[in-house]
Write a structure and sequence with these properties.
Largest sheet: none
Strand content: under 5%
Radius of gyration: 23 Å
Distance between the termini: 60 Å
Low-confidence stretches: none
Mean pLDDT: 81
Number of strands: 0
Length: 67
């Protein structure tokens, strides 16, 4: 996992536990997971966005020609 061994991961987790405490650590992990999910959703929406813009341009052209 990212070139980190088991010992390095344990040290990182212990440091996080000392910095944030046992009560806040689950909330931080939950927020991190949500942000990663939103990032993935945003990246997939970004690839769909140009298609939607083209559809909106054709719809706006149709409206302008009917005036």
């Amino acid at each position: 996992m990212f070139g980190l061994g088991f010992q390095e991961l344990v040290v990182i987790l212990l440091l996080a536990l000392l910095l944030f405490g046992a009560k806040r650590l689950p909330g931080i992990a939950r927020a991190l997971g949500k942000s990663v999910q939103e990032f993935k959703d945003g990246m997939s929406d970004k690839t769909k966005e140009p298609e939607e813009k083209e559809e909106n341009k054709t719809n706006s052209n149709d409206i302008n020609t009917t005036k």
